Amino acid sequence: MLDCNLPSIAPVPPSADRTLSGAVSSYAQSHPQDPGTGPQRLMPTSSEWTHQPIPAHSFRQGYEAKSARAHQAFFQAFEELREVGEEQPRLEAEHPADTAENRYPHVLPYDHSRVRLTPLDGEPHSDYVNASVIPGYTRPQGFITTQGPLKKTLEDFWRLVREQQVRVVVMLTVGMQNGRVMLCEHYWPADSTPVTHGHITVHLLAEEPEGEWTTRDFQLQHAAQQPQRPVKQLQSTTRPDHGVPETPSSLLAFVDPVREQAWAAPGAGPILVHAGEAGGGAGVGRSGTFVALSRLLQQPEEEDTVDVFHMVCSLRLHRPLTIQTPQYIFLHGCLLSRILEGAPAPLSTPQPIRVRSFPRACSERVADGSAGFLGEHELPLQALKDQAGSAMPSPGHGQDSTASHGCCHERSPPAEDGPAVQMPEAWLFPVRPCPWAVEIWELVWEHGARVLVSLCLPDSREKEFWPTESQPVATDAETVH
After folding, report:
1. Strand partners for 412
2. What's the CA gap between 168 and 173, in Å, rounded?
3. Which residues contact 221 (CB under 8 A, 6 or more apart)?
4. Which long-range contacts (CB under 8 A, 24 or more apart) does 206-214 make?
5. Which one, out of 8, 266, 312, 420, has a CA that is 20 to 30 A from the CA of 429?
6. Spatial separation of the C-alpha atoms in residues 363 and 338, rounded to whole Å
7. 366: closest CA among 31, 68, 55?
């Protein structure tokens, strides 16, 4: 039976019965709770799932199949995940003493997976912070996802970092954008002057921008304890305000150094992940995507299989609303991009595609946010630019007028055998023809054009170009009726 909440994901034979009821029963057995506080009914027990892990070498074909009909299979799969974990209790987060510390009233940590701080003397409910423990791939406490800190929760944030032995903090948002403060308090020192939150003093030792992210080194000092503790923050600075990135490349490039930093700190606690912009500061969307991708990238390395569905199921059992439909699809695209990195590099010049290979070719081009299609589109544009540049007439040469008329002219090559055939010529006018109407009609006459195609809506500015019934257009050599 599948336990989608196990700290590590063990290989499951394809013939195994992976059902919803198995997920619920296994979870209940492995996470005993006090009466009245444990998960009573995690998901509708009448549903059963048969989603199987996909071998890494077959992932591309699976992605193609699910992408058909406007990603219909992805939407259908996610509908089965939508209610996962919703009925688990969140009693502490709903307590009146804690509600002011929640950024969003609908994103509250489950009792069984919430992080418990050390209670402060004489302060009931001071153990609460809106943060959830999420298992890693190989250890039960791999990540902590939390909301972007509020001004009133800055002390709790640093207590969380210190008490949970956090050595790596992942921030998935910028601090300011267009002069607007994002939904995340600036919780670290702005310069070398340390800041103190409660009993914890934070020193900024170094700050280094590295392209699409910034790395900062902190030193934490507790008022009553030694020694100081290092903490590294990696802040992504390229994520969009809403939705998912246009391509997986930026997130994939960011996940790798985070994993390296985590491995470089033996004995460290979980990786702390938070976002902080409008719609993304609850510690579920971007944070969940990052955690899911970090775990999923390890799975094919260890098992040679990929199981996005049950990975997301596991995350949603630990943090409500983790991953939404666009992010679920985006995760598949990220994995496909990483898997395809080992495939042969595509030819620089696009080649004809066999009909039976067309679906696969399309999926490869779509995988990185349609980067393949966009790259191919740039090739003819660049070719036109190069051709226009090479067609510039030399001084005193007036036979080729294409450059002066602002259009690109392409002649078909003559046939090697047989009688000469008059082939049509293609002309591309990059702008409306009005400024040089006379020159255009001269080209029509010179090259024997019989058809003119305009992709512009009728415009009063074109009356000097098109003749009317009562007003022909006259040039030095031609009259157009």
Report:
1. none
2. 16
3. 194, 200, 201, 202, 203, 228, 229
4. 209/237, 212/236, 212/237, 212/238, 212/250, 212/253, 212/254, 213/237, 213/238, 213/254, 213/257
5. 420
6. 14
7. 68
pTM of the shown model:
0.63
- Does 35 reside within a domain? no
User: pLDDT by residue for the chain (481 residues), tens digit each?
Assistant: 344 643 333 333 333 333 333 333 333 343 333 333 333 333 433 333 458 888 988 898 888 888 888 888 899 999 999 899 999 999 999 999 999 999 888 889 999 999 999 999 989 999 999 999 998 887 777 999 999 899 999 999 999 999 999 999 999 887 655 555 566 889 999 999 999 999 999 999 999 998 889 999 999 999 887 788 999 999 988 766 566 777 888 899 999 899 888 888 777 899 999 986 444 545 468 889 999 999 999 888 888 889 999 999 999 999 998 888 889 999 999 999 998 886 544 444 556 776 666 766 676 666 555 666 666 666 666 666 666 555 554 444 444 444 344 444 444 444 444 444 444 455 545 445 455 556 677 777 777 777 777 766 655 555 556 777 777 777 666 778 7
Q: Which conformational region is residue 369 in: left (phi greater than 0), alpha (psi within -120 to 50 degrees), or beta? A: left
Which of 301, 318, 340 lies at the terminal end of a domain, its last residue?
340
Residue showing tokens 């630019």: 385
Report the alpha-carbon distance of residue 207 to residue 204 in Å, rounded. Answer: 8
The amino acid that residue 126 corresponds to is S
- Residue 371 belongs to domain spanning: 350-390
CB atoms within 10 A of CB 463: 14
CATH number, domain with residue 138: 3.90.190.10
Task: Name 359's Cβ contacts closer than 8 Å, sequence gap at least 6.
Answer: 64
For residue 263, the one-letter residue type is: W
Same domain, 291 and 430: no
